[in-house]
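Subject: design request, 606 residues
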């Protein structure tokens, strides 16, 4: 895990300025405390920067920027390529030689041989920038599931030819000339979802590169963006292996798929910890890790004093899981005093405003306290295996209210009449049931939104809210994520996958993965997510399309090292963080996450 950044500009000033270069490295320091590097191509007005968290081949041989032996290509890279050993073996058989034992040189060699066509061969989480000194072209690429962030920016004004990229929005904000005018879609999207939806940021000139996309740019020219993999939904319309004939066969194949992904995610030249709560997902990760090598598993658990000795206390059950699996565990309780002491640091590390990430920040801090640079998370299990209430609520809403779609005016009228009353007695969302509840996209908006669209003009500038809502085109965007699934013939699988794709493409990508990244990097800890793996999703697709679609209970039923009944029988509660209790004395405008959202947003616009 690392931090990357760069500037490409016909104007030599930003490229050759030592203060700008040092500011870039300083902003990325937490992402890579083990080393840093700068490289300039004065003839092309290019600067690239890298800060390193050394995990694979931690020697100086793998420092970046890395140059190809022929001198044509220069690479900076953030992430991990889990199949680098297999790729290196293939390249070695073709006659290539390697001076390092990590994944960076494998990427560079593949690109020198195949160009951007090599990108679909990479399995992992990555944000890559490669400069072709012969073609004078900069290529950026981001992994298919959007695990690692990659932002690009242009200068203010239509005549500007400045181009920059970075792992963080805050890095780009410090580069002179970037267009930092407010982006209505970013601000509106934050209040709508509790995080800023991709590809937007709070700034007009800064964008997120879409997952599974590559961007190519030459100095003074506009960037060109294109996908290098098909959309996630197309996984389920491609030719598939045979479906499992029995549930037992499904469980056997599921176990093999999960175990293989975990084995790949354990590849590291430094020790790897696993985050362990009282839930099925983290328990499954710990069980699979123990199956591979129990004596090497180190589990970390976070608890909160406000929840100690209650049903929401994660520590006792996590301790029971560790004991059952025979693995070593460390745990720590924190309280409001810890939060207050770290709040400024937490907000400083938060690259974009979000209502989540507090738990990831403190578990990342715990990992660093015990000396770990890498940890495994169960993130993604709920999205892939139907762990959220949305998997039941959204299909029921659509089936009950789809008739309302025939007369949209009725739903709008119901909302206009009832919205002022609803806000006094219950959730304002109930006013939108007839307007939005009859489609998967609309029902998902009702389920996941922090504020509803009609509330936005009352909490932010009305013109910005109106323009932002138009720019977001939220319902159309949600429909685009799931439209290819219409061709699936099996109704039960189609409805399940619609919800899964909506959760994967919005909540997981723009909030959970992004928060995991900045919160882990706040403590220079790489958090890996074995459930969020493109090859796992390809292998899982035939099972999901079968009559035995794997559910949340199946990821524990397929394990060889079973979890204790106290975990398996426990109702789902989610990983609860007492943020509302921690801030209730300081923010009184609204209750719960809405208060925290206003507080966080105010820090980014101050």
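Subject: RE: design request

Done. Sequence follows.
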């Amino acid at each position: 895990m690392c931090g990357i950044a760069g500037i490409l500009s016909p104007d030599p000033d930003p490229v050759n300025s030592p203060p700008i270069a040092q500011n870039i490295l300083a902003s990325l320091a937490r992402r890579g405390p083990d080393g840093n590097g700068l490289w300039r191509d004065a003839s092309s007005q290019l600067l690239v920067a890298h800060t390193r968290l050394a995990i694979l081949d931690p020697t100086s041989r793998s420092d970046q920027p890395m140059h190809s032996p022929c001198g044509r290509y220069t690479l900076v890279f953030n992430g991990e390529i889990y199949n680098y050993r297999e790729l290196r073996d293939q390249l070695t058989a073709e006659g290539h030689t390697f001076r390092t034992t990590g994944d960076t040189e494998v990427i560079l060699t593949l690109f020198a041989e195949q160009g951007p066509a090599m990108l679909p061969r990479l399995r992992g989480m990555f944000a890559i920038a490669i400069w072709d000194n012969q073609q004078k072209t900069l290529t950026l690429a981001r992994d298919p599931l959007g695990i690692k962030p990659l932002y690009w920016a242009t200068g203010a004004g239509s005549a500007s030819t400045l181009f920059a990229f970075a792992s963080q929005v805050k890095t780009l904000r410090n580069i002179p000339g970037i267009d930092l005018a407010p982006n209505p879609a970013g601000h509106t999207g934050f209040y709508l979802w509790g995080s800023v939806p991709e590809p937007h940021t709070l700034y007009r000139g800064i964008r997120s590169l879409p997952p599974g996309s590559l961007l190519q740019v030459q100095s003074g020219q506009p960037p060109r963006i294109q996908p290098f993999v098909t959309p996630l939904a197309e996984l389920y319309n491609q030719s598939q292996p045979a479906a499992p004939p029995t549930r037992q066969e499904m469980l056997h194949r599921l176990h093999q798929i999960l175990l293989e992904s975990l084995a790949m995610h354990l590849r590291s030249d430094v020790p790897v910890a696993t985050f362990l709560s009282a839930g099925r997902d983290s328990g499954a990760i710990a069980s699979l890790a123990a199956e591979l090598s129990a004596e090497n598993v180190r589990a970390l658990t976070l608890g909160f004093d406000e929840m100690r000795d209650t049903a929401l206390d994660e520590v006792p059950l996590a301790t029971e899981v560790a004991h059952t699996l025979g693995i070593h565990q460390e745990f720590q309780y924190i309280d409001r005093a810890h939060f207050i002491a770290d709040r400024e640091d937490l907000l400083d590390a938060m690259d974009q405003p979000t209502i989540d990430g507090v738990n990831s920040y403190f578990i990342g801090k715990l990992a660093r306290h015990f000396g770990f640079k890498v940890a495994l998370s169960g993130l993604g299990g709920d999205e892939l295996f139907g762990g959220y209430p949305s998997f039941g609520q959204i299909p029921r809403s659509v089936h009950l209210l789809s008739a309302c779609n025939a007369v949209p005016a009725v739903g709008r009228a119901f909302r206009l009449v009832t919205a002022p009353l609803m806000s006094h007695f219950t959730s304002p969302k109930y006013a939108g049931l007839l307007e939005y509840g009859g489609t998967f996209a609309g029902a998902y908006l009702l389920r996941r939104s922090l504020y509803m669209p009609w509330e936005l003009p009352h909490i932010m500038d009305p013109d910005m809210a109106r323009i932002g809502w138009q720019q977001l085109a939220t319902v159309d965007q949600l429909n685009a994520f799931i439209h290819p699934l219409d061709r699936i013939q099996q109704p039960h699988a189609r409805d399940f996958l619609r919800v899964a794709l909506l959760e994967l493409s919005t909540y997981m990508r723009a909030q959970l993965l992004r928060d995991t990244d900045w919160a882990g990097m706040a403590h220079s800890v790489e958090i890996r997510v074995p459930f969020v793996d493109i090859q796992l999703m390809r292998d899982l697709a035939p099972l999901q399309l079968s009559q035995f679609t794997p559910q949340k209970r199946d990821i524990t039923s397929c394990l060889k090292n079973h979890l204790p009944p106290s975990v398996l029988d426990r109702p789902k509660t989610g990983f609860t963080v007492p943020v509302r209790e921690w801030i209730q004395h300081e923010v009184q405008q609204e209750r719960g996450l809405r208060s925290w959202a206003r507080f966080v947003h105010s820090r980014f616009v101050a």
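The chain has three domains: 2-230, 245-386+511-576, 390-498.
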